[in-house]
Amino acid sequence: MGKAEVGSAKHLSNQMKQKGLTRLRWYCQLCNKPCRDENAFKMHSQSPSHTRKALEAGSQFKETQEDFSKDFLRNFVSLLKTSHGEKEIQINRFYQEVIAERHHTHLNATKWHSLTDFAKHLGREGICRVTEKEDDGLFVAWIDDSPEATRRRETLRRKELQDKGDEEREHMLLQAQIERAQKDAKARGAAGDEEDDDAETRALRRQEGEKITDEEQPAETTQGAKPVSLKFGVKPQPKNIFKNAFSGAPKKVMAAPPKKMSEAERIMKEELEKRRAREARGGPPNKRQRL
């Protein structure tokens, strides 16, 4: 039975049935053909085109396997670079994104027997940074070794070294200033102690037979008490103990609080002030207009 014509209803029906992934055992990697069931895969494997490609691949097995391996590696790294960049991701989760394409190169057609062997190859070749975690397994992160990225990393490294050098230089200068200040403080303290010791030594050491002069004698700090003069001719006046102590003080006059004005008085006062101000200006008295 021949193939359905392109654009026909049968062709569109077949295309709709072939959407999505098929089983791995019913996929022919040599012909890049997915089969829907076991009977379709059996019929395809007996076809002349598949037989011819199988004979060619058998005669050049190493070259064919190497081609599939390079294709798988190229697709894997390209998708990792474009979708995640240099971020770290769990390799099993990312492998699900790789095989989401219908016509992807299968891992069993390559020279790596498992995904772990492929991750080890990525780490050995320096293509990706591979780390293993106890709970989550292997993680991969793409290493950007392009000239632009290399120059960018070198610039960042130099900047970090320069900043670190500046910080170390400032720290060294600050440490030197602290040490210099400590030495100066110790030197001043030692000089002060020596001066005190010299003064005490000069005061205590006296030659035999040396007398203390008036200049060396301590000055009198307290003045003598004045003699009390006693007057016998004047009789002291007796003090009146019953006299009020506050009688001689001036009396404070308490001002009376202002009288609170009612509302009518306030209005009359305002009208009177307005009338006086109008008369002082020479204007006529205020008259109400008749309606």
From TrEMBL:
Look up the domain of life of the source: Eukaryota
Q: What does the record give under GO molecular function?
A: double-stranded DNA binding; zinc ion binding
Q: Which InterPro entries match?
A: C2H2-Znf_KIN17, DNA/RNA-bd_Kin17_WH-like_dom, KIN17-like, KIN17_WH-like_sf, Znf_C2H2_sf, Znf_C2H2_type
Sequence intervals crossing the membrane: none
The residues covered by the C2H2-type domain are 28-50
**Which keywords, in A-to-Z order, does the entry hold?**
Metal-binding, Zinc, Zinc-finger
What is one GO biological process annotated to this record? DNA damage response
Q: Which Pfam families match?
A: C2H2-zf_KIN17, WH_KIN17
Note the coiled coil stretches, chain numbering. none
Disordered, as annotated region: 180-246, 270-291
PROSITE patterns linked: ZINC_FINGER_C2H2_1
Family of this protein = Belongs to the KIN17 family.
* Name of the featured protein: C2H2-type domain-containing protein
